Amino acid sequence: MTDWPQLRSDILEAFTPGPPINEVELFAGRRDVIQRLQDIAIERGRNAIIYGERGVGKTSLATIFHKPLNVTDATGGRVRRRVVDIHVNADSGDSFDSLWRKVFRRISRPNEKNPIANEYDGPIEPDHVFLELQRFTANDLPIIIIDEYDRIRDNDCRILMTDTIKALTLSRTNPTIVLVGVSENITTLVYDHPSVSPRNLVQVPMSRMTSQEIKDIITTRLRNLRMKISDDALWRIAFFSAGLPFYAHSLGKYAALSAVSQQRLDINEDLVFAAMKDCMSDVDYTIVLSFTRATEFIYRKKNIFKEVLLACALAEPNDLGQFQAVAVEAPLSAILGSDVRVPSFAFHLNEMCQDARGNVLHKTGERKTYLYRFAEPSMQPYVIMQCLQDGTISQELFERLSVKRQRTLSL
């Protein structure tokens, strides 16, 4: 007999849309990337920079990739390799000194009462970092993870970090620095990156998850919970997630909770649609605010900003999540019930790239060949779900417009 209250608790522990995942076996997908980071950590003189869009799972990856690297002798129980992971978050006010003081506060030494950071009256320099990291033993595998590295505004800090990474190539111990940041490429994160050998600072780009990886997030957890999900429901979660693990976790959680509330162990498509409302309550408030600014009526005059934004969310993108204005024509025509061409909504696209409309879209390229993308990846799924909820688009029309994508996202 199923213990329904216990199953509900298990669901809340299994699906984690908020905090980073902290168990390797629950980090479905990204297996190749995990292996790559593990190889970097084990090899001497190698460091990594993980970068990509916001919300693609960079922090979760940095949190768990090293967990299987501890090695204990099977016979004597002697520790052959001990991971010492130190995870700090950078902020906009950090200097090289303040950033490494955060790291040093988290390093404990046997028989030393005071934190290492207290030993430095003056600014911490790259050579201080180099010498402190030499104090680890041959069996230690120190991994220093500096998250939100994109928030650092101090160019001197970035220069000194590059110097530190280059200096560590001569280390007799095996420390690994892992930088994590939101960026489209390494050039905006690392100063003077050409001077750092690709062998010493390995680029680890994080793209959105594939539909199969989203599927793995759901099925891995439901299997552990002894629950099932229909193929259609699984595809719906993959479609709405748009490659972002947050939405997969949130929709999976609420669909499973809805099933439990009905005392059933199977999840169908109706439960996924019902989960949207609760999922939207989990979305960061900045996304909700930006959506409101982008679509609000100014001077109470009706406009089609919401419909244009929805059509953008339903437009067929390229592999980088970008779309041309012409790709918006078909979904917008279907939503408005009349034939429209680019000149009818070019103004709206341009306005949504401006401050007045919250900069929800980002535009690149030349006139007549502009490429657009959502400035925040989380906005695209939110727009679709919000417009389904408020009736801007009917479920029937949504089904018709999503048929083309179903072939490419088929699970």
Automatic annotation (TrEMBL):
**Which residues are in the AAA+ ATPase domain?**
44-183
Q: Which Pfam families match?
A: AAA_22 (PF13401)
**Which GO molecular function entries does the Swiss-Prot or TrEMBL record give?**
ATP hydrolysis activity
Signal peptide range: none
Q: Its domain of life?
A: Bacteria
Q: Which PANTHER family match?
A: ATPASE DOMAIN-CONTAINING PROTEIN, DNA-BINDING PROTEIN-RELATED
Q: Please give the name of this protein.
A: AAA+ ATPase domain-containing protein
